[in-house]
């Protein structure tokens, strides 16, 4: 489908009135055709790694990037989830392979990179998506173990997987990276006593993204950060159950402040990741992109 609905509409109007096709009409029709082809081929010849990508947002991003022509390596901690996700994507004739990788384990990251190089010959794109939320509640009550886990997975392993992929991207002449924060990371104090330690770790992901812009730009690699609001995934369900024990669905009050009055879908993040990784975002680096149905946008924009 065209990504430019207005042009598509114009095209159908022109097709109906074929007797007076002007140069302008021809140019616009050519642009529509270009748009269709362009979207199909946006990542032709590119190799992408998406971590934490056997369900939810990571999966949706991997699917979108593969649909647009990339060869994609997906991964997560559990073999059965990797197998199921690879099958689902290959059933759509997408060029996808998978391997187990706990993003916080050095040997797993090394295996992931080696596997990608062996399978597809290089690395151009990375979506570093893994994140955990092992604690909910008041900031001063987080245990040291929970704090360590938050920072080990959300911050340290994000930095390390990026640093380990960079030489391989540079070898191919450059690349693009998306890190994964959250609206809570943009505006951690707004989480009050709900989940400040998680929010702080995701603020660190924003800081990490910003400081990496310069050293990566020297290697022709762009990095940007996606900051979703509540997205309908099992992560969000677990997160909400921490605050509302016994709650199995997603309570309405959780999106009361959202102007769209609904949660986001993983695919609505996948398309943003694809944009940020693509040449359509070629002059963007160090940007923190909220995908949140407008929640607190005015407040957050003070920090962006
Ligand atoms: N959902 C939201 O509302 C929301 C909003 C903002 C940001 N986020 C971010 O999204 C990420 C969670 O994704 P999701 O919401 O799509 O949840 P999800 O559907 O539960 O998916 C999480 C994925 O991550 C994998 N995973 C978990 N820990 C991992 C690790 N240490 N290493 C590698 N893979 C790991 C899981 O598979 P295995 O169990 O097999 O490892 C699964 O594939 C986090 O970074 C979170 O901060 C989510």
TrEMBL record:
<comment type="similarity">
    <text>Belongs to the short-chain dehydrogenases/reductases (SDR) family.</text>
</comment>
<dbReference type="InterPro" id="IPR036291">
    <property type="entry name" value="NAD(P)-bd_dom_sf"/>
</dbReference>
<dbReference type="GO" id="GO:0004090">
    <property type="term" value="F:carbonyl reductase (NADPH) activity"/>
</dbReference>
<dbReference type="InterPro" id="IPR002347">
    <property type="entry name" value="SDR_fam"/>
</dbReference>
<protein>
    <submittedName>
        <fullName>Dehydrogenase/reductase SDR family member 4</fullName>
    </submittedName>
</protein>
<dbReference type="Pfam" id="PF13561">
    <property type="entry name" value="adh_short_C2"/>
</dbReference>
């Amino acid at each position: 489908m065209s990504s430019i609905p207005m042009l598509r509409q114009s095209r159908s109007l022109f097709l109906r009135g074929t007797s007076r096709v002007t140069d302008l009409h021809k140019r616009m029709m050519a642009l529509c055709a270009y748009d269709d082809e362009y979207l199909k081929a946006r990542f032709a010849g590119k190799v992408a790694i998406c971590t934490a990508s056997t369900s939810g947002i990571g999966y949706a991003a991997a699917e979108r990037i593969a649909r647009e022509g990339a060869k994609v390596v997906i991964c997560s901690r559990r073999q059965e989830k990797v197998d199921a996700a690879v099958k689902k994507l290959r059933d759509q004739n997408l060029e996808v392979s998978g391997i187990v990788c706990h993003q916080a384990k050095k040997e797993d990251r090394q295996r992931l990179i080696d596997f990608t190089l062996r399978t597809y010959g290089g690395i151009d794109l990375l979506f570093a998506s893994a994140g955990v939320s092992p604690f909910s509640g008041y900031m001063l009550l987080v245990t040291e173990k929970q704090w360590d886990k938050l920072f080990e997975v959300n911050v340290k392993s994000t930095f390390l997987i990026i640093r380990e992929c960079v030489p391989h991207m540079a070898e191919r002449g450059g690349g693009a990276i998306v890190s994964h924060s959250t609206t809570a990371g943009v505006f951690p104090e707004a989480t009050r006593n709900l989940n400040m330690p998680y929010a702080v770790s995701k603020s660190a992901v924003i800081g990490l993204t910003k400081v990496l812009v310069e050293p990566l730009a020297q290697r022709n690699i762009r990095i940007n950060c996606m900051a979703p609001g509540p997205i309908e995934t099992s992560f969000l369900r677990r997160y909400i159950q921490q605050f509302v024990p016994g709650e199995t669905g997603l309570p309405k009050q959780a999106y009361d402040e959202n102007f769209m009055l609904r949660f986001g879908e993983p695919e609505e993040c996948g398309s943003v990741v694809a944009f940020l990784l693509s040449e359509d975002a070629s002059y963007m680096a160090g940007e923190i992109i909220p995908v949140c149905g407008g929640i607190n946008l005015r407040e957050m924009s003070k920090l962006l």
